[in-house]
Amino acid sequence: MILLSPLSALGRSTLALLAAIGRVALYFGRVLSHIVRPPWYPREFVVQLLQIGWLSLPVVGLTALFTGGALALQIYSGGSRFNAETVVPSIVAIGIARELGPVLGGLMVAGRVAAAIAAEIGTMKVTEQIDALVTLSTNPMKYLTVPRVLAATLCLPILVAVGDSIGIFGGYLVGTTRLGFNGTNYLQNTADFLEFWDVASGLVKGAVFGFIVALMGCFHGMNSGRGAQGVGKATTNAVVSASILILAANYILTGVFFSA
User: How far apart are the first and last CA of the chain?
Assistant: First the structure.
């Protein structure tokens, strides 16, 4: 019996994980079905555009700025070992556009937005406001989940595009002020080596990451436990699950886009 205890614990954990994946998959399917069917709530959608997009811009911009500067320093330091300092502009631009821009932007938005969504919806569930919506013949999925998912899916590519620009600008500032690059040559190298698909792939990733962030926030908020402890746990789970799924989705999308 002692030897079987670890196996039974492993089995219970595996079954719990599979059950959680199944619940998320069913919720995902319900969200997609409600997105394409009326009624819609445009006013709530606009509010979420401001909450998710506009209010996330400062944190995404600052993250991209410092990331671009740090990346320029690191690439210059590593490239100097092989007399390849001139690759700094192109590597910074490609690294920001393909990976760091969408991933860091998605993670920062996950920390801010997924937590806020889970806390808000979880509190509504605890205080029985969701039950009140049902009483008023309002579908909580359409009123709470669909506007947030659509807003996050549309906003995050825009945030990624802005973050890419600010991140490249951060590399430009460091390159021209600390590393001795000529400003015109730096920008020319960036434009010469940065291709359309480098930017477009990052924007596609941003849309997927935005969908994941809102989906996880709404899912854990809708399934939060009772009381302050249940809401706090739902908020933590939303951020953790969104972050993990963003990293996993980034690996899959990178393999699909750049497998060759």
Answer: 51
- Domain range holding 171? 41-257
Q: Are 246 and 209 in contact (CB under 8 A)?
A: yes
159-188 per-residue burial string, b: 16 or more CB within 10 A, e: under 16: bbbbbbbbbbbbbbbbbbeebebeeeebbe
Entry pTM: 0.90
Residue 116 inside a domain? The answer is yes
- In this structure, are residues 237 and 220 in contact, taking their beta carbons and an 8 Å threshold? yes
Q: Considering the domain boundaries, does residue 154 fall inside one?
A: yes
Cβ(210)–Cβ(236) below 8 Å:
no
Number of domains in the chain: 1
Task: List the structure tokens of 144.
Answer: 């709470």
Model confidence over 81-116: pLDDT tens digits? 777 677 888 889 999 999 999 999 999 999 999 999
